[in-house]
C-alpha cells in the first residue's frame, strides 16, 4: 500500500496524541487515581498504536503496546500509579516523540525501545517497584463525591485552586463568595427552566463562577432535586436567599459563605483521597488555562470543534487572489461613481461590504491560538524543575490568544529561552526562598494577551530579580560598557544589558550574574519578527520579560507619502509623528539640514535625493512636510511632498531577484493596483 | 510504423523581437506574456531593472532586456510586451519589443552560439536555431537572471 500520502496525516495526528498524553500525564501526576484520566491516556495510546502499526512503524507500535498494557492494568485498578511508574511512562512518551521526529524528518522511526519495554514489563509483573504496594490501594470513582456533613466548609463541593484564587481575589475587592444549594419542589414540572431562572436571577447579582452539576447538565435536567452554585457578589446573604426564593416552585435554599482560608485548611486536614478527585493538591505544575474552561460555567464545554487542515501555502494563494479582488473592487467603485448609475453604485457598495467581511475571515483563518506553543511548556517546566531540584508552579494564562501562524512558528524558541532563564536563574532554590520569607514553591507565569494591533507575551517569575551589581561588573569586564558609562546607567538600562551580545555568550556569566544565557538571541529573533522585548526587574521580587509582537506579519499599518510622482509606505511602527515646517525653521549643521523637534536636533533626509526621484516639475508648496521616524533612540526626519494618509497594507516581498535593495524592506499593492515600496527607516538613520 | 530514430525531439519556444533580431525562450520557463502597465521604480538598483509591477498580487521585478544586453534603448509602444519568466525561485518580467509567436524547434537544429550575436555575448545564449530562413537566438535565462552577476555589477558601480 502506498503510505506516503498518509504520512503527513499520521505525523500531525500522532503529534496531537503525544501532546494529549503529555498533558494528561501532567494532570495525572497530581491526581494519580483519576480513572478518567488514565482512560483518556489509554485511548490516545491505543490510537497511536493502531496508527503506527498500520504505517509499519514497528518499534513505535511495540512501545505503545507495552505502555497500553500498563495503563490497562491501572484503569482496571490492578495497578496503582506512583511517581516511579510516571517517570517510566514519561520516558516512553519522550521516546515516542523522538521516533516521530525521526519519521517526520524522513527517517525510519527506529529506536532502541528494549530498555523501556523491559521496565514496562517489570511494572506489569510487579517487581519493578515495591513502592507500588505501599500506596493506598483505594481507588476513587471520579463522580462520587461524598460530602461529610459534619464540616461546613467541606460541604462546599470541590473548588479547585483556580476557583479558590478567584474567590480570594474577589474578596479583596469587596466581593463575597457564597455557596448556594437550591432544591426544587418534588412536583416541579420544568426543573431545568426553574434552574435556569435561579441561575439567571443570581447572575444579575454578581458573577457565577461554578455550578454543580455543570450548566449543560442542568439544562438537560440531569440533576435530581437540587443543584449548587458558587456566586461572587456584593449583596448580603438575605438578599441572595430572597432572590432564589422569588423563583416559584423552589422548595428550599441553603446559602453558605465560602472562606477560602478555612476551606484550604480543611482540604489539608481531611486529605481523603476519595473526597476530591478533581482538586489539585500540592501541585507542582498546573495549567490554569485548562481550568479556566472548567471554571466558567457559562461557556459551553469545549465541544470537539470540526476543523480541516489546510496547507498554509493555499491560504497564501487565497490571500493573493483576494488582494486582486480588492484591487478590482477599487476600480469598480471608481467606475460606478463615474457612471452615476445608482443601481450599479448600490450593487458595488454591497459587493464592497461582502468582500470586506471576506477579507477579515481570510485574515483570521491564518490565526491560531498561542496554545499550540504554550502546551509544550508544562512538561518542559516539570522536567527542568526536577533537574534543578526546585519547586515551581507554572501558570499559563491567555493560551487562547490568537496570533498569525507565521509568528507562532517562530516564537517557540525565544520563549523556551526565557522560561529556562526564569527557572534556572530567576527562581531561587527552595531553601533560599524560605530564608527570604517567600513560599517554598516558585511561581512562573506565562501570559498572553491582545493589546491594540499587538499581542503581548509575558514571562514572569517571583524570584530574586536581577543582581545589577554583578551584571554591571561583568559588563565592564567584557567591555560592553565603560566604567564611566556604567555610572550613568539607570536601573532599567542595567537590566537591558542582559540582552547585549557580549554578555550572554560566556557560560560562566550565567552563574555569576544570575541571568543572561543567550538572551541576545531572543532579542534578535523577536526583532526579526517585527516585535520588541523588554525587561522589568525588582530585586527580591522577581523579573518580568515582556514581548510585544505584531498580530500578523502580512499586514501592517503604514503612512503613505508622496514624493513627486512616486508613492511610498512608511511603517507606522517607526513613525513618531508627522509635522510641517516652514523653510526658515530649517537649520544647517555639518552640511546637513536639521530641524529642532521639541528641543532635539533631528537631521533631515530628503527622500527625493536619496532615492534619485525624477522631478515631475510640478510647483510645490514652500512648507516642508516631514515624517519623523526613529530607530531606537535616534531620530531622523524624512522630507516628503505630501502625506496621503494612514492605511493597512499587505506586505509583499520584492522576490529573490532584487535582494538587499537599499532602504526598501518590501512592497505593497495599493487600491489602484500599483505597487508602492515600503521604506526601511532603520537603513536611513545612521 | 515510426522508428524511434525518426522522432526528432523538439522544444517549444516563445519567440520575441529585440532590435532587429528574433529570440526565443523555452515555453516551460514562461509564465505569461503581458502588456506593459504601470511600473514602480525601485531606487538604487541596477540600471537595467526598470522597477516592479503587480502581477496578479505578486510583486514582480521588471528587467529591460535591451538595457540588460547593452543594446540601444527604444521607446515603449503598443507592441511592447513583458514576458514573465520563472527560473528556479526567481520570477522576473522581461521587457521586449514584441512577442508574437510560439514555435517548435527540433533539437538538432540548434547550434552553439558564435561569440557575439546581435550585440549579445555568447554567455547569455543557449544557441542559435536555423529554421528555413529564420535565425532564432535562444536565451540562456539562468545566465541572464544570474543575481551574482548583478551584485558584481553593483559593486563596480559603487
Please explain how this structure is put together.
The complex is a heterodimer of chains A (686) and B (158). Chain A has 686 residues and is α+β, with helices and mostly antiparallel strands. Chain A has five domains: 4-145, Four Helix Bundle (Hemerythrin (Met), subunit A) (Up-down Bundle), CATH 1.20.120.160; 152-267, 2-Layer Sandwich (Alpha-Beta Plaits), CATH 3.30.70; 312-365; 369-550, 2-Layer Sandwich (Heat Shock Protein 90); 555-684, Beta Barrel (OB fold (Dihydrolipoamide Acetyltransferase, E2P)), CATH 2.40.50. Chain A is 45% helix and 22% strand. In chain A, helix 1 (4-30) runs antiparallel to helix 2 (35-55). Chain A is globular, with a radius of gyration of 31 Å. Mean pLDDT of chain A is 78; it is low at 130-151, 270-303 and 505-517. With 158 residues, chain B is mainly beta. Chain B has one domain (10-157): CheA-289, Domain 4 (OB fold (Dihydrolipoamide Acetyltransferase, E2P), Beta Barrel). Chain B is built from three helices and 13 strands; from the N terminus they run βββββαββββββββαα. Chain B has a six-stranded mixed beta sheet with strand order 8-1-2-13-12-9. A five-stranded mixed beta sheet of chain B has the order 3-6-7-5-4. In chain B, a hairpin with a 2-residue loop joins strand 12 and strand 13 (134-139). The longest helix of chain B is centred in the last third of the chain and has 11 residues, at 147-157. Chain B starts with 9 loop residues before the first strand and ends with a helix. Chain A binds chain B through residues 320-321, 323-324, 327, 566, 610-613, 652-659, 661-664, 667, 669, 673-677, and chain B through 37-38, 40-45, 49, 51-54, 56-61, 88-92, 145, 147. Chain A: One of its GO terms (molecular function) is phosphorelay sensor kinase activity. Chain A: It catalyses: ATP + protein L-histidine = ADP + protein N-phospho-L-histidine. Chain A: InterPro entries: Bact_Chemotaxis_CheA (IPR051315), CheA-like_dim (IPR004105), CheA-like_homodim_sf (IPR037006), CheA-like_P2_sf (IPR037052), CheA_P2-bd (IPR010808), CheW-like_dom_sf (IPR036061), CheW-lke_dom (IPR002545), CheY-binding_CheA (IPR035891). Chain A: This is Chemotaxis protein CheA. Chain A: Keywords: ATP-binding, Chemotaxis, Kinase, Nucleotide-binding, Phosphoprotein, Transferase, Two-component regulatory system.
